[in-house]
Every structure is written in C-alpha cells, then in structure tokens.
## 1
Amino acid sequence: MATVATTQTMAKFVEGIRDVFASTGDPREQAQRVAAHMQEALKVPGWLEEAINLPPAEGYGRVDLHQDEEYGHPGPGFLLMCSIQHPGQDNWPHDHGSSWVVYGVYEGAIEQVKWGWVYDQGKWTTPHLERYQDYVENPGDVAFFLPGEIHNTRNITEGRSVVVRVEGQELSRVPRHRYNPETGEASLY
Ligand SMILES: [Fe+2]
C-alpha cells in the first residue's frame, strides 16, 4: 500500500505537469515550469522509493511512473519515469529529437556533459562536435535539455544514482540521434 505522501506527491506532480501542457506550447517555458514542479517533488522524503518499489541499495533499470496520452510537447504524450543507474553508467552523446527532457537527481549524483556543433571560421561544411560544458547534479538538483540539444550523462557515485526524468514526448516515439564525438558520425535510434 502506498502511503499518503507517495500518492499525493505523485498525483500533484502529474497534475502540475498536465497544467503546464494545457497552458503553453513553448518548449522552454514547458521545461522551466516542469523543472519547478520536479524541484518541489524532490523535496518530499521517501515518496519515490515506494513508487519504484525497490530495495534501498539494489535494483537497476527504468520504471515508468506515468505515461500521459493526452498531453505532450507538440503532441502525445509526456512520460514521467525514473532511471536507476549503476556506478559509472554512462551513454553516448545524444539528442532528444523534438522533445525536451528534465532530469532531476533523487539519490546519488550524475555528471552532465553538453556538446555542440562548431564550424570553424570559413569552414562552413565541416562541423565538428565540441564539448562545451559540464556540471554535476546532486540530490535535489534539476536540469533540462531543450529540443535539439546534445548531451551525455554519467553516474559518478560508487553506488546507484536514482534519476527522475520527464520526457516532453515519450522518447521511444521520437526519432533521435546518437553521436560519436571523435568522428561526429550520427546514427538514428
Ligand atoms: Fe538524454
């Protein structure tokens, strides 16, 4: 049985996100307002453990918490999910297609690295990927990536990291690219 705190926190969070989609179609405003709701949810102790139903230090993978069929960035439908990551778990630089994604850390810490296409002066047909920013998200920290932005993540703790994400559109429905930062080569996934 879920406690009142868990049920209420989840319901309030989902309702807050739905309200955002109901009132604006602008991706930056959507992401900013969803990030504010996530910040509030992350302050509530204990609600997520129960929602994801995992023992405190074991269990990895993803748990979908709410898939919305009515509201989504420019179409169906947003996904609230949780990713439980192994120590050192990382991924290739990637974008999220037309979607934005909000990342909040509940437990552990992840490094975020941002990449951009750079065209050297006069070389307008030979862009390369450049790492231009990195930062760490600790428990309670929230960050987001707007449509088209490229990033990769890494769990920098010795234990698991528990990351709450809102995908403006459920990402498996969105064509996205994954990049080799050495060669700039992209592949659809
Ligand atoms: Fe991502």
Note: Residues 94, 96, 101, 151 surround fe (ii) ion (CB under 6 Å).
## 2
Amino acid sequence: MNASLLWILLLAGACVGSFINVVAWRLPRQESVVWPGSHCPHCGHSVQWHDNIPVMGWLALRGRCRDCHQPIASRYPLVEALTGGLWVSAAWASGFSSNHLLTAPETTVITLVGGVVLISLLMPLVLIDIDHLWLPEPICRAGVIAGLLATGLVALFAEQETARSVLFNHLLASAAGLLVLESLSALAERLVGQPALGLGDAKLAAMAGAWLGLGGLTVSMGIAVFSGALFGGLARITGRLKPREPFPFGPFIAVGIWLVWLMGPQWWWSQWVALIEP
Ligand SMILES: [Zn+2]
C-alpha cells in the first residue's frame, strides 16, 4: 500500500479515536460532545492542544495530567491507536492497496469510506457497552442508515441490474437481525427469568444486517455467540465474573461485524468447514 496514504489513515483514525473517547465518556453522561473542550476529570483544567495530540500527547505526559499529575487512563491512547489501525485495515480490505483502485475506483473509495464510518460507529458502541452495559440507540440507528447507504452505493456502481436485490437483502437482514434477537431475548427472559440479551444487542444486530446482508449477519452472529460464550465461560471459571453477573455482548457482535466486513462471510464459512471436516 502507498505509504503516505497509510500514514494519513493512521493519523486521521487516531484523531477520530480521540473524539470517540470523548463521545464514550460524555454521551452516557448526557454532556455535549463538542463543548467544552477536553478537560481533566480530576482537576477540571482544560487540556492544551499539544497534550491532546493522539497517543503522542499521552506519551509525552507519561500518562499523567500536566496540572494535577493524576494518572490518565491508558485506554485513551489505546483507543486512538486501535482506531487508526482499524482504519488502515479498512483500506486493506477495500482493495485500496491493490489494483482495485484502478479497475473500480468508485466502489473502492465508497467501500473504504464505508469501512471507516463503520469502525467509527462500532468503537463508541463497544466502549459505552463495556462501561455501562448500554448500546445507545442513536448510534445504532445511524449505523443502520449508513450501512444501507454504503450497500446501495457500492451495488449501484458495481452492477446496476443487481443493485435493487442487494439492497433488499441487506434491508431484510437488518429487520431479521432486530426481530430474531428481540425474540430470543424475550424467550430467554421467560425461560431463565432474567434478560439474557439487552435490547441494544438487537439494534446492533440490525446494524450488522444493514452492513453485511443475510449471509454476513448469520456468520457475524455466529462469531459473536462463539467468542462471547468462550469469554463468558472462561471468565466464570476463573472467577472474574460471578455466576449470574451480566457482561456486555455488544463488543462480541462488533468484533463479528468487523471480521466479516474485512474477510467476507464466504471466507469465514470456508474456515469453519475446514475446521470441522479436516
Ligand atoms: Zn488534572
């Protein structure tokens, strides 16, 4: 891949990651995400622009506030670096690095922009779900709309005859994701007597359907259930989670969505088949 493009994406992604940190902190507290500027949660002093440079600012301050010297969580630079890295992975998956850019420039650019938008919506959802066991509906709704828009545009530029059926598939998958998870949640609540899934999980599944279509929805939910069950089992065995203590499922759905967006549902399906039929 073009090295300068890689750096631009890494830096732009890290800057957006910095904003995602702000959103993840302020949205659940019903604070404005644009005003006032960043300030230290301990002493309230505003953060100077050069201390706010993604990752570098934190490293230069050695993870402490310039004014009160209280530690600044390492999660902030980690989220910035991760967002930058995931933006680069979007460029790789969209074919930006290969000759796709020459043969199909429109779809390559739309796919890259779509991937970057998808990551930037999934990241705050994951962080807020980890902190508050809550997946904010406005972000999920924006994710459904963005997913259908990206799907429609790519289909339109790629093959005009099939555009309508591709969009219909993703629309159907979005509704199916919402309905299936909501019914499973209601069923589990009746059987176990406590909600097994949050309502937000159904909204995130709707987002998965909008971006990935019916096949992609199925595979991404498979990855989510598998990794979530593995995590939940290990966490309970090691005592990090109490027997009935809930844990956020949103991050596992988000990982499933991203892995399927990167590699495509067919690739994951063939991996699964190879695993069970050696
Ligand atoms: Zn401070």
Note: Residues 133-278 form one domain.
